[in-house]
Structure formats: structure tokens, C-alpha cells
Design goal:
With 356 residues, the protein is mainly alpha-helical. The chain has a domain of 89 residues. The chain contains 21 helices and no strands. The chain starts with a helix and ends in an 8-residue tail after the last helix.
């Protein structure tokens, strides 16, 4: 009725409703709306993504569209900090991924588990995969499997295995060359590992190979944070702080914002500004995103300890155990707290120095 009043009076309302209904049953309309949903995710408009996925669920989508819609919805929940919702969906999606051999879904599951600090669960996807692509499989399939294993590098170093992560990354160099999207981001992962193992100059050199304009918008902040970590390793604190702020301005995911706050705290602490650093650490600790973050919480506790605030420091270290229990940082926090139980990560992750 509203449409008729708004200038469509020559058309009976029933005819207009029939036209709208027929359009919503048309597969090309479904593809357009799904494409718009994907673009919203790429732009960082995650609330719009959820609005569109909520609407599209009611339409008779093809099976491949419904799987894509499911992935986009879970990515949006994760990006907005709805971690419990994302993880619950990831567990269901993992069953589908393994049963149907869907590598796109496997990539999604790995990312969601890692973002939630479930590194062992992420690695189980690889170990339990029915059959990795054969060398003569289609290139798209081989590229997606390479992406799954590339993302798992993050799981390995978050478990504390920086050497194992570097070895895994090196083993992926040749297959990554055939995948332009991944090859452009490959130096960022390498630089992150180099920066965290004290090789700042090599990290900066690696980043010179990245075309930032070809990095997806929602991940561009990570390039700045990686450069900031490299500058931090070199003691170039002012430049590191400037780069971290650039990353924060470009952050779209809540996890990126939280990680940027922790990074600013680490920079201030390393620069000797101990009274200033807790402000950034506390902002990160109270941020709505609570996944991962063990390294930042550990550094917060260390900073408080240096300031003589021992009880607060112990509270911060306990947060590591509660929020990022599988991480290498959790093992260090347990040591600071006088807890000597063998960390779960070391006992179950092959390839880590602690497990040998």
C-alpha cells in the first residue's frame, strides 16, 4: 500500500507484492545480495554484513551460497568481538568442512579458532583433514590448502613455538608463490616472526616486498603493527609508536584495535615510560575483545611488577591463564605465579621446542 501511495498507484498492490516475491526467488538476485554481503565484510562494515546475512537466511539459496553466507556471518561475528557465537558456529562448520572436504570452510574455521585463542583446535583441522589436495589438483584447491596451512603459522607461534612457526612458514614459500593474494601478504607473516625473534632489520626489509594497496582493507592495520613491532625490536620507539597509531586509525576488526593498544603499551614500556604504559595495557585488557592477547597481558603484569604493584601484576598474569590459556604466554605467566604444571600447549603441539 505504501508503494502505491509513493507513486506506484497505476499498479495494484498485489501485483507489486508478486513482483517483489518473484525477484526474491530469482537466483541472480541472491547472487547480487550475497556479493554485497561479501563486499561489506571486505570494507569492514560488519554490522551491515550481519543485517544482510540475517535477511538472506530466509531466502531459498543454493547450497554453495548458503555455505558462503554461513562463513561471512561467522567472520562478521568474530570481527565484532562476538567470540562465543563465532566459536560455536566454527565448531559446527568444522564438522561440515571435514565431512564435505570444503577447504573454504576449513580456512574460516582455522581463522575463527585462532582469533578465539583455540590454537590446538585450529591445528586439529589440519591433522584431521581427510585428504590434502594432490599435486595435480586444481590450482584453486591447492591455493586454499596453502592458505589453511599459512594461517596455522599464527597458531604455532602463539603456542610459543617461534622456531617451529618459522620452519612451517619457510616450507610454504614455494606453494605461496603461485597464489598472488597470499604471496603479497607472506612477508608480513615473516616480518612478524623476525621482529619477535629480535631480527628487526630483516623484518623491515621483508615488509618492503608488500604492496599495501593489495592487502585487504580489514588487514591493512596488521602491516602497520608489524612494522611497529620491527621498529620496537630495533629500539626506534618514536617511529614504532607512530606506526602503531597509524595501524589503529586503519583498524576495522575489534581484535586489531585491542592488539594495537597492547602494542602501544609494549612500546611505552620498552622506552622506559613505565608510568604511561599501564594506561595502554589497561585499555587493551578492558576492551570488549577478549580473545588471544596473552603476550599483552603478560607484558602488562611485567610492567606493573616493575612499578612495584605486585598484587596487580599477579592479577594481570592470572588473566593470561584465563583468557589465553593455550598460549606460550600462559606458560610464562604460570612461571611468574609460581605454578609449575606442564602447559597444555607444550604437551600437545608437535614441533614446539617444549614438546621434544
Amino acid at each position: 500500500m505504501t508503494l502505491a501511495i509513493a507513486g506506484f498507484s497505476p499498479f495494484p498492490p498485489e501485483l507489486l507484492l508478486a513482483l517483489v516475491a518473484s525477484l526474491l526467488l530469482w537466483s541472480r538476485v541472491h547472487q547480487f545480495l550475497l556479493g554485497l554481503t561479501v563486499r561489506c565484510g571486505e570494507w569492514g562494515a560488519f554490522r551491515a554484513t550481519l543485517a544482510l546475512t540475517g535477511f538472506l537466511k530466509w531466502l531459498p539459496l543454493a547450497a554453495w551460497m548458503r555455505a558462503r553466507l554461513w562463513r561471512e556471518e561467522l567472520y562478521a561475528h568474530s570481527a565484532l568481538g562476538h567470540t562465543e557465537t563465532a566459536v560455536a558456529g566454527a565448531r559446527r562448520l568444522a564438522v561440515h568442512a571435514k565431512a564435505d572436504g570444503c577447504l573454504l570452510c576449513a580456512t574460516c574455521v582455522v581463522n575463527l579458532f585462532i582469533n578465539a585463542g583455540l590454537y590446538l583446535e585450529a591445528l586439529d583441522i589440519e591433522r584431521g583433514w581427510p585428504c590434502p589436495p594432490a599435486p595435480d589438483a586444481p590450482s584453486a584447491e591447492r591455493n586454499e590448502w596453502t592458505l589453511v596451512r599459512f594461517n596455522l603459522v599464527e597458531a604455532v607461534y602463539n603456542l610459543g613455538g617461534w622456531g617451529a612457526a618459522n620452519a612451517r612458514l619457510s616450507s610454504l614459500e614455494e606453494p605461496a608463490r603461485a597464489f598472488p593474494f597470499l604471496w603479497n601478504f607472506f612477508p608480513v607473516q615473516r616480518a612478524w616472526i623476525l621482529a619477535h625473534t629480535g631480527r628487526g632489520e630483516e623484518a623491515l626489509a621483508a615488509l618492503e616486498n608488500v604492496d599495501r594497496q593489495r592487502v585487504p582493507r580489514v588487514y591493512r592495520s596488521e602491516v602497520h603493527f608489524t612494522r611497529a613491532a620491527a621498529l620496537l625490536a630495533l629500539g626506534r620507539y618514536e617511529e614504532a609508536e607512530w606506526e602503531a597509531h597509524r595501524g589503529l586509525r586503519r583498524a576495522h576488526r575489534v581484535s586489531s584495535t585491542r592488539n594495537g593498544l597492547f602494542l602501544l603499551g609494549r612500546i611505552a614500556m620498552a622506552a622506559g615510560r613505565l608510568e604511561e604504559a599501564p594506561r595502554f595495557f589497561e585499555a587493551g585488557a578492558t576492551h570488549l575483545y577478549k580473545g588471544q592477547g596473552g603476550d599483552g597481558l603478560l607484558a602488562w603484569g611485567d610492567c606493573l611488577a616493575k612499578l612495584g604493584r605486585q598484587e596487580e601484576a599477579r592479577d594481570a598474569w592470572r588473566l593470561v591463564l584465563g583468557r589465553d590459556a593455550q598460549s606460550g604466554a600462559a606458560a610464562e605467566a604460570a612461571s611468574r605465579l609460581g605454578l609449575h604444571a606442564r602447559p597444555l600447549a607444550a604437551s600437545r603441539c608437535p614441533g614446539l621446542p617444549e614438546a621434544r
